[in-house]
Write a structure and sequence with these properties.
It is a single chain. By secondary structure, this protein is of the alpha/beta class. The chain has one domain: 3-Layer(aba) Sandwich (Rossmann fold). It is built from 10 helices and 8 strands. The strands form 2 sheets. Strands 3-8-7-4-6-5 form a 6-stranded mixed sheet, sandwiched between helices. A two-stranded antiparallel ribbon has the order 1-2. Strand 7, helix 10 and strand 8 form a beta-alpha-beta unit. Helix 4 crosses helix 6 and helix 6 crosses helix 7. The longest helix has 18 residues. It is globular. It binds adenosine-5'-triphosphate and magnesium ion. Adenosine-5'-triphosphate binds next to helix 6.
């Protein structure tokens, strides 16, 4: 009864290099695992937008590369939404048509590409959230190659995506309306983007202030949370 010494020999150094844990595909697993451990990047949201974002003719009067220089006052706001900034909550009271929603969409693109986590984007109503998804979010993804690669179109099978939710590695974007308490409570959210807050109802399905309901979603993320609230107020003092 002799041991088959040839097959029991230790794995060669080359084999160890190829497969650290000793089975096929182990290195792929390790690579994926270390990607998940990677810290958020130093890149800011405005730098990301200048590098990766394209505006489509479907949603923009000036299609082509997104240039922060075109709306320079949005740079500080976008950069406060970057992981390098300690700011957690940005409230932007603004005039009409100054590029606020697009800057918020840059925030969405940045999160999908570089700092993934659950994100909740709120429009005044579910109907408007659907329209915004079609007119603004789909083009955001389709026109930006880095995002197109990461988010499958809603129509493909097992895409994990619908009109109101877009999945990406490490996170998901949920879109909803301030009139839907269920939508606002649907998910914990590290990131919040509340647009057109002036048009929100005072109470969502009689469950209270939609802004408070949405912001409660992010509490568990403590210092890593980021919230952007945008509003063009119509009633003085409100
Ligand atoms: N940096 C940019 N470069 C080129 N076009 C831009 C830029 N930012 C915004 N735009 C365009 O300006 C228009 C208004 O932008 P946006 O809808 O973001 O503004 P807003 O402040 O959210 O407007 P509203 O008051 O209607 O909510 C859009 O057509 C948008 O594509
Ligand atoms: Mg807007």
């Amino acid at each position: 009864m002799s041991a088959p010494s040839s097959t029991a020999s230790p794995r060669s150094a080359a084999a160890l290099d190829d497969d650290v844990a000793g089975f096929d595909g182990a290195n792929d697993l390790l690579r994926a695992w270390s990607r998940g451990l990677r810290p958020d990047p130093d890149l800011t949201v405005s730098e990301w937008a200048d590098r990766h974002r394209w505006l489509s003719s479907r949603a923009s009067a000036e299609p082509g590369r997104y240039k922060t220089a075109r709306t320079p006052y949005m740079r500080e706001i976008m950069d406060a939404l970057s992981p390098v900034s300690p700011v957690q909550r940005v409230v932007f009271m603004k005039a009409a048509q100054v590029g606020a929603t697009e800057a918020g969409n840059c925030f969405i693109g940045f999160v999908m590409h570089h700092a993934p986590g659950p994100m909740l984007a709120v429009q005044p109503t579910v109907e408007l959230a659907k329209r915004n998804s079609r007119q603004r979010i789909d083009p955001l993804i389709e026109e930006s190659p880095e995002l197109r690669e990461r988010i499958k179109p809603a129509r493909s099978r097992d895409a994990g995506n619908t009109m109101l939710s877009k999945e990406f590695a490490g996170g998901i974007l949920i879109m909803t309306g301030a009139n839907s308490a269920v939508g606002l409570r649907s998910t914990p959210a590290r990131y919040l983007f509340l647009d057109e807050v002036d048009a929100y109802p005072a109470s969502a399905d009689e469950e209270g202030d939609p802004v408070s309901l949405a912001e409660a979603r992010s509490l568990t993320f403590a210092h890593r949370r980021k919230a952007l609230l945008i509003s063009t107020p119509t009633i003085r003092g409100l």
